[in-house]
Amino acid sequence: MFDTLSDRLSGIFTKLRGKGRLSDADIDATAREIRLALLEADVALPVVKAFIANVKERARGAEVSQALNPAQQVIKIVHEELVAILGGEARRLQFAKQPPTVIMLAGLQGSGKTTLAGKLARWLKAQGHQPLLVAADLQRPNAVGQLQVLGGRAGVEVYAPEPGNGVGDPVRVARDSIEHAKRAARDIVIVDTAGRLGIDAEMMAQAASIRDAVQPDEVVFVIDAMVGQDAVTTAEAFRDGVGITGVVLSKLDGDARGGAALSVRHVTGQPILFASTGEKLEDFDVFHPDRMASRILG
Ligand code: GDP
């Protein structure tokens, strides 16, 4: 991901090498090229506008520096602005004062929610937690089976509807799972919910009902980083329909242009918590804005 954007940016910076002080015209030309590179990478227009305005303002105001030549100065500004649109500091998970902490996952079908549930459970278990996975995606055929396989691999218990008991009612499964977690002394409950291929009123209503039933400490919106401009509409719909508290970028290992990854923080106003980078349970890490910005700038 970001290969094209990285190449474009490095081409833009190369042109600045060897220049003395940058004129306003140099700064404007550079800003225009960066704007195009971001738009071609599918970054959402409002994000691009804010980004470019900041870069321009800072580049104009930049002091002549002994340590950095103009090209290095622009690179530094772009790096810092990339870190800013990615959220600044890494943000940790919010834990409940009274266990169990409830983490609800929401997102479109195929975004990588169920896979993420397994990854998160494995990661939390490795830190000494006792997570419980909850199969409240009763929409997608075999989402329950998939979660059971992942739970088995992670060595984490999966709470799933028993035949004849709450089958077809994800809200009830989710609510009952909290009671189960308390009885079984699980300190973290990860609730996988159903998504659909597109935004859908029924799906949002179900996610909102599950949220009300489990009172989550985190509502984590999982977004497939491979999607392009649609990412913005999807993110806004989940922000407004369910009320998200954090984001996970999945499929960052793909070769898409990366616009979703660069837009979602600005659009939702919520931090990116984790990054998913493959199909295996260990392809997962805390999201670091700074590392991602460095990766983009090569
Ligand atoms: P859900 O419908 O949101 O629960 O999505 P799934 O977890 O079933 O994931 C959909 C597909 O994407 C599956 O084939 C996963 O193996 C795959 N997948 C999930 N996360 C990643 C990731 O980070 N990278 C890659 N390459 N594939 C992923």
Automatic annotation (TrEMBL):
Catalytic activity: GTP + H2O = GDP + phosphate + H(+)
Binding-site positions, GTP: 107-114, 192-196, 250-253
Enzyme Commission number(s): 3.6.5.4
Domain of life where this protein originates: Bacteria
Assigned keywords, A-Z: Coiled coil, Cytoplasm, GTP-binding, Hydrolase, Nucleotide-binding, Ribonucleoprotein, RNA-binding, Signal recognition particle
Major site of localization recorded for this protein: cytoplasm
Subcellular location: Cytoplasm
Domain SRP54-type proteins GTP-binding per the UniProt entry, residue ranges: 271-284
Family, per entry: Belongs to the GTP-binding SRP family. SRP54 subfamily.
Function, in words: Involved in targeting and insertion of nascent membrane proteins into the cytoplasmic membrane. Binds to the hydrophobic signal sequence of the ribosome-nascent chain (RNC) as it emerges from the ribosomes. The SRP-RNC complex is then targeted to the cytoplasmic membrane where it interacts with the SRP receptor FtsY.
Subunit structure: Part of the signal recognition particle protein translocation system, which is composed of SRP and FtsY.
Entry protein name: Signal recognition particle protein
Taxonomic lineage from the root: Bacteria, Bacillati, Actinomycetota, Actinomycetes, Micromonosporales
Boundaries of the shown chain within the full protein: 1 to 298 of 522
